[in-house]
Amino acid sequence: MRIMIVAAMLGGLLPGPPVAGAQQSEDARLAGEVRAEFLHTWHAYKTYAWGHDELRPLSASYRDWYGESFYMTAMDALDTMVLMGLKEEADSTREFIATHLSFDRDVSVKNFEFTIRFLGGLLSSYQMTGDGRLLRLARDLGDRLLPAFRSPTGMPYVNVNLKTGAVRGTVSNPAEIGTLLLEFGALGRITGDPRYYDTAKNALRALYRLRSPIGLVGESIDVESGRWVGKESHVTGGIDSYYEYLLKCARLFDDEECRRMWLASVGPLNAYIADSSAGGLWYGHADMTTGKRTATLFGSLDAFLPAVLALSGDIRRGRDLEESCLRMWERYGIEPEQLDYRTMTAKDPGYALRPEIIESAYYLYHFTHDGRYLRMGREFFDSLKKYCRTDAGYAALSDVVSKKKADSMESFFLAETLKYLYLLFAPPETLDFDAVTFNTEAHPLRRTW
Ligand code: DMJ
Q1: What's the CA-to-centroid distance between 413 and ligand 1, angstroms?
Q2: What span, in angstroms and rounded, lies between the C-alpha atoms of 216 and 390?
Q3: N or C: where does the chain have the smaller number of CB atoms within 10 Å of the terminal CB?
């Protein structure tokens, strides 16, 4: 009998992990395939949208966020090319950015988006390549964004004009207020100018101090008065990366105050937002003052949390939540923007090519070495190819139920989605996970100071 079982295993008839060598060559094959899909998308961007912010994959055209381009996709994709070893593309894109990108424009931009995509992208590419022109651009951008923080509370306005420093948008949210310190802090540490760190830290601290007596934050707040405008608490868009940065700033800067803020925040998150009543572990919505459940919604953005929990050392919750994320993905074969996890129906059926569920698989694989996360990554990749691939890059879906495509491909598809997928399958030495901290746009920052 024993002999039969061994024979069956050798013949691959029983399920089980592949032998190490076979696993490695399968991973290498998948990493190569992800890289090929990156190139397919990058070439489409270069053909139809070069010099513009974003590719529109259905109309084979482009979109600029502010009517004029900041080369957002090229900027966001640069460090992915470096990591994938696409040297020629990376060199020519870096040269283009260094010689064409200018922030001296009379344009009112979103402080948060320019911080995570441009400041983060410039700093990580500077650290990877040593090109001082990227650091000068980062510093110039940092200086132009600083006026955003000149509110009575120190929490930034939503928009700032890059030329005049004029601000607008008094109602902001924890994500946009609290997801700035990795980038401003790294800029401060690299340049030795403390204003960047102190200003972003001050904003984060101001927000943290306004948390409710039970330790939760709401979803919108007036940065002039400090009054909460939206009191629903959750981990989806508008709040998500606030939690991510409390932990990651503790890690990158060894900032004890951030560590304390993270520890004081994750307890209430697990007490009031976590929800095991519908089968499996989810994080829903609750009132920030009472902790009372307000909605059983979870979505593609919320799928960042398994990664953050794992990074904090809570592997059990990270694993459990990623299993729920997988159920969300498998409900329609690809995840919706918002799912009611009690009824398992899509409440917002779009899929914006988001990376978070893949990012979490990558983190969990790093910490556990469990091949389950490789298999998940493969499933996510297969769905992306099946439902989102077009002749001109990849397209978001307007409806995961019908699989109807939308004419949109945000820059984070190249900055994050394909980068995390590649890193999941690539050999660990491709990037020393322990030596970097990814910003929320997947730009790895290294502690060089
Ligand atoms: C990215 O811009 C960032 O990851 C942000 O934190 C959330 N939204 C997108 C990706 O989904």
Answers
A1: 10
A2: 42
A3: N
Nearest to 264 by CA among 283, 249, 246: 246
Pocket of ligand 1 (CB under 6 A): 116, 241, 301, 354-356, 412, 416, 440-441
Residue range 333-391, pLDDT digits in tens: 999 999 999 999 999 999 999 999 999 999 999 999 999 999 999 999 999 999 999 99
Q: What is the Rg, in whole angstroms, of the alpha carbon atoms belonging to the chain? A: 22
What is the Å distance from ligand 1's center to 6 Cα? 47
The pairing of strands 171-172 and 167-168 is: unpaired
**Whether the predicted pLDDT of 17 surpasses 80:** no
Q: Whole-angstrom Cα distance, residue 409 to residue 62? A: 10
Q: Is 113 a catalytic residue?
A: yes
Specify whether 356 is catalytic.
Answer: yes
143-185 pLDDT per residue, tens: 999 999 999 999 999 999 999 999 999 999 999 999 999 999 9
Closest CA to 298 of 248, 341, 358: 341
From 113, 412, 416, the mutation candidate for ligand 1 (largest count of ligand atoms within 8 A of CB) is 412
Cβ contact 336:324 at 8 Å: no
Ligand 1 pocket mutation, candidates 76, 354, 439, criterion most atoms within 8 A of CB: 354
Using DSSP's 3-state secondary structure scheme, residue 101 falls into coil
Q: How confident is the model at residue 20 (pLDDT cuts 50, 70, 90)?
A: confident
Mean pLDDT over the full length of the chain: 96
1-69+298-443 is a CATH 1.50.10.10 domain: yes
347: amino acid identity, one letter? K
Classify residue 20 as exposed, middle or buried by CB count within 10 Å of its CB (0-12, 13-18, 19+): exposed
What does the domain layout of the chain look like in residue ranges? 1-69+298-443, 102-295
Sheet holding 108-110, edge to edge: 108-110, 159-161, 167-168
Question: How far, in Å, CA of 437 to CA of 245, rounded?
Answer: 10
Give residue-wise pLDDT tens across range 130-140.
999 999 999 99
User: Which ligand 1 atom is nearest residue 301's CA?
Assistant: 11
Q: Quote the longest CA-to-CA distance of the chain.
A: 80
441 is catalytic: no
383: its two tokens: 């769905």
Question: Pick from 177, 199, 206: which is nearest to 112 by CA?
Answer: 177
Q: How far is the CA of 408 from the centre of ligand 1 (A)?
A: 15
d(CA 424, CA 373): 8
What residues contact residue 181 under an 8 Å CB cut-off, 6+ apart? 197, 200, 201, 203, 204, 245, 249, 258
Closest-CA residue, ligand 1 atom 5, reads: 440
